[in-house]
Every structure is written in structure tokens, then in C-alpha cells.
Prior knowledge:
Blueprint: E1 2-5, E2 10-14, E3 19-24, E4 27-31, H1 37-49, E5 56-58, H2 64-67, H3 70-77, E6 80-84, H4 87-92, H5 96-101, E7 125-127, E8 130-134, E9 137-143, E10 152-156, E11 159-167, H6 169-175, H7 183-194, E12 200-205, H8 213-223
Helix pairs in contact: 7-8
The site of zinc ion has 6 residues, from loops.
Amino acid sequence: MKMNQLNNNCYYFSSSVNVGYVHEGNNGLLIDAAIDQSAIRKVVRQLEEAELPITHLFITHAHADHYGGAAYLKKHYNVKVMAPKLEAAIVENPIIEPIYMFQGNTPVGELRNKFLEGPPVEVDLVVDEGEQEIDGFHIEFISTPGHSYHQLALATNGILFAADSYFGKKELDKHKIPYITCAKDTIESLEKIKDKVYDGAVPGMGLMKKTLKILFSIILNITKTF
Ligand SMILES: [Zn+2]
């Protein structure tokens, strides 16, 4: 979990699943919460050492590797938790994922692990796409369904925190087929964000890039083969 500063306001912590961070005055917004308490503690320890505040958390989508550390943040930092609709319902009731992975039946024990079901956390604010000002943060939420039903990417201060709307090449080489709920939505989400201009973009998994177009062309080619 190496801390990387992107500009005056934006940072990200690089790991197998990246965590974003935005600083505005006395407030600090984490973007996703890593897979568990141990992983997110590595993030908050570095923020505390840098004397940066921890007041808000935005969960981009309800996959446990992105919200598993959220309950720890809520308990110890009383963060204001924000999440997109439906995703919010799952992080508040995490057994929903093992249930839908098991066709709506009572899930077998093998599906009830920390990769599919994190500790539940109460969501304070359900958010939707569009530009918004929240407690001093100037945010554009961008709807990027396809990897999950209501995933939102977050753009602020010239940086796109893209969630799992695309993956780094290394991750694609490793997993071959990215997890998606809908190929059509995935392609449309990629098309939507590839033409937007940012100083940089941080995917949920993979390296931060200054330009997205090369990576997107690779992913679009892969996805369109389905
Ligand atoms: Zn995901």
C-alpha cells in the first residue's frame, strides 16, 4: 500500500486493489476501503503520519475487495459512508452477493468468504451520477455499469478514480476474462469514459495512467470478442 500523490488534492495507495484519497480543507475522502481491516489500516496509518484527515468514504461498488475495510473505518473514524444505489443495499447486507452467486438459494459455505462477503457497513448517503458538491468536495460521479450493476467512477481535481470500469494490462493477462455482469454495459461504460479528458486515471486494479486510450483499445477489443 504505497502512498502516491497525484496533485495538490489527490492521492492513491497502490496495491492489488487501489484505494483513492482526496483532501479538501479539513475533510479527507477515501475512495474504496480495501479488502479488510488489515489492508485499510496500512492506508490510514500513512494518512495519519502525513497529518491528513479521514472523514468520508465513497464505495464505488459492492465487491468485498473494495468495501471489506469499510466497517473498520466507520467504527474507528466515524466516516460518512457514501455508495451508489443497489451497491449500498449490498454493503449493508453483504450476504446478497453469495445469494445471487448461488442463484438465489441459501449459499453454500464455500461462497461465504471475505472475497465475496465483507463486514456490513451502514451507508449514510446514497449517491447517483452527476456533478455534486458534498461537504466541500467537488465531485463528478460517472455511471459505469457492466462490472457491477450501479458502479460509479469518481472524478475530481482532474483525476478519474475509475473503480473497476477497466483493469490494468497485468490484471487482464492474469485473469484473462474480467468479471462483468453485462458485456454491453461494460463496453458502453468504457466508450463513455475513454473520450473524457483528465490529467490521470486510477483504475481499481492496475497502474495509474496519464493517458487511457491505449489501454481502453486493448480492453474494448477483448470485450467485443464476446
Ligand atoms: Zn469489482
